Amino acid sequence: MNVSDTETPSNPEYSQQSHSQQSTIGNGFSLSVQGARHLHDGIPCQDHSLYTIDGDTLFIGVADGHGDAKHARSHIGSRLALEIAQPILREALDTLTIPQTKREWLSFQNNIERRIRWEWNCACKRELELSDTDGTWIPELIQFGTTLLACCQSSKGLLCFQIGDGDIAWMSKDNQVHFIFPESEDVIGTVTHSLCQPFEEGVCQSCLLSPPIDCTMLLLSTDGIRDCLQGERDRFATILPWLSKRKEDSIATVAQWLYQISTHGNGDDMSLAIHYPSDNHQ
Amino acid sequence: MPMLKIGQRLNTREGTVVQVERFLASGGQGEVYEVTSARQHYALKWYFYPTTSEQTTQLEEMKKAFAIDGPFSQAPPDSRFLWPITMVNDPRNRTFGYLMPLLPREYQGLERLVLGKMRPVPNFHTLCTAAIQLAQSFKNLHARGLCYKDINLGGPFINPKTGEVIICDCDNVRYNKTPGNIIFIFFAAPELIRGEGNCTSKTDWHSLAVLLFYMFIRHHPLEGKRQLQINVFNEVAQREFYGNKPIFLFDANNQSNAATKGFHDSAIRNWNLYPKFLKRLFRRAFGVGLHNPDERVKESEWIGAFSTLRDSLYYCKKCNSPNFYDFEDHSNGNHQYCWRCQSLADLPMRLEIGDRTLLCTHHMKVYAHHTHSRLNFDDEIARMSQHPHDPSRWGIKNTGSSDWTLRTLDGKSVQVPVGRSVPLKHGLTIHFGSTEGRLLSK
């Protein structure tokens, strides 16, 4: 297994953070690139992304820190979101028995979300060095506002979780692109659901795909890329086959591409994470 | 693919022909079709073919319930149950089905209510009516020595405009203590989850309390802080939280599973809407009632409570939001404020009949329950009505079957025949027959 984590200014201008790994179940990487607007304003990249393979379990995720003044610590919030989600999703997948009814699934889904929120609240409070470090929501958590898109895959299936905007998509062997979740109807314009808000039923999305999954590429992306493509899902879908053909490109090359998109688009930070399953782990 | 074909003809146990018209739905036990027989439309539930010995046993148990000494050999205990009418035979004898009345289109499942998807959204008055009707239905079922066994959000349906109730999925109804429990873990009584005893009306009481809590608080009563601290909410955890160590999230003496800010905000908000007498009932149902089935809240108590709740509904004069007036605060001299705009409560006229108080809002109704026959909501005595020439003037209309006598503050008596109204004036006394009511503005 090869592992590589970097957090270096590979380009003298913008900062980037990436993880890559290769194992018998496949290979891939995650990458977050500071957006042109944040570079101009001297604000650190608010996004984080993570790609890890532990044994036969893959964890892949991206988190989009909101970044405005109200969310001044969102670069920490996005990192914590991924660190928190990884063990929770992994344990959920390990012990999951398929829920029988819609209500049971809803309960399971709500429980994952509540667990992530609770631990994330605890972690953020520790960052604030508060004496009260349980997961009860307090207004100060708004500073850490972030979205979270994460997938955990093992022989039991692919568990996907999303709160806030962004896309989780996969490509099948016939090069068709499929989105895991339908487009959210209740998120308008630039408003997004966030981990920093109090829990509300029906806000997060999650699903479990049972194996075998006819997947040649799994991609998670914050909304930065899609926003630069006029927000259209169909246009966004075209980047999967395009990226798939550039599998051999270095992370630095992809980072350069993301930065260019940001420069020509809305200047937002960009994050994506990609997994290419090996032939016998699809 | 549906098990039955459209147009397929089957025979009831009595030999009557039924014809399959359309597929309606599929569930955990089987499929439901619309069928016709002698030009009448019915629903047919058709059980899945058993594939395991356990399923075969279950199917045999179902058949027994349709036997001459089974619960379905008698008329329904309450007209609100979609009661099985007769068995329908499978020509190849692999399974069977049963006929029942069709669910009217205007009824919607409680699952939609809890998920916030019921349209039109039922108002509080409607919800109270639905709660009363649910409790009445189960009271009548239990009075016959039967239990429903798996009360959950999937069985009851309500008309969101009126609060009228219809209860489906009656095929699991059995006589008390019949072996073969159904554990729908979110609703099952703790002792059933622990494997102690069989389903009875007392285990139904717990499930009914959970159902009512869901309807009014929109949350599970045992899901609080503890659930936030475990990673996997699997069957083991569920057995612990609902069976072995159940703790109410609004337990007054035990905070270990308390509702938590940021996670249970809507439950906390909803809980705070209701008067103390209702909270006390829920605290009993999910306090001592969790461990002692005899202490659970009985249907008649729920009926009385939701009638009182319905009578205490008023609308804020500033923001028009519905509020429930807590008369315990009134008698203690405490002020009450609108939950939404925080304005001081400005109550409408109230009608006091004995120890019952009804706030005279547009949908107020007086039933025999209020005057002389406790828990009787079939006989209406009075309702609010608008003046035929001036809709801004309201009165209380005699909609009962006998005349009233009205006494004014200056001692004059006036007859109020059936169909006539009494104006809303402070100090008037209405003699309903065996009891009297007083209209009060302060």
Please characterize this protein's 3D structure.
The complex is a heterodimer of chains A (282) and B (442). Chain A has 282 residues and is an alpha+beta fold. Chain A has helices spanning 36-41, 74-95, 102-127, 223-228, 233-237, 239-244, 251-264; strands at residues 2-6, 16-23, 26-33, 47-54, 57-64, 148-154, 157-163, 167-171, 177-179, 205-209, 217-221, 270-277. In chain A, helix 2 (74-95) packs antiparallel against helix 3. The longest helix of chain A is centred in the middle third of the chain and has 26 residues, at 102-127. Chain B contains twelve helices and 23 strands. Chain B has helices spanning 53-65, 110-114, 124-143, 190-193, 201-217, 235-244, 265-271, 276-285, 288-291, 299-311, 327-332, 368-371; strands spanning 9-12, 17-26, 30-37, 40-47, 86-89, 96-100, 108-109, 146-147, 156-158, 165-167, 174-175, 313-315, 322-324, 350-353, 356-359, 365-367, 380-386, 394-398, 404-407, 413-416, 421-423, 429-431, 436-440. Chain B has a six-stranded antiparallel barrel with strand order 1-2-3-4-6-5. In chain B, strands 15-14-23-22-19-20 form a six-stranded antiparallel sheet. A four-stranded antiparallel sheet of chain B has the order 16-17-18-21. In chain B, strand 22 (429-431) and strand 23 (436-440) form a beta hairpin. The model of chain B has no long low-confidence stretch (mean pLDDT 94).
Query: Are there runs of chain B of 5+ residues with pLDDT below 50, and where?
Result: none
How are strands sequenced across the largest beta sheet of chain B? 1-2-3-4-6-5
* Tally of DSSP β-strands of chain B: 23
Percent of residues of chain B in beta strands? Answer: 15-25%
Overall geometry of chain B comes to globular
Q: What is the percent of helical residues of chain A?
A: 25-40%
- Uncertain segments of chain A are none
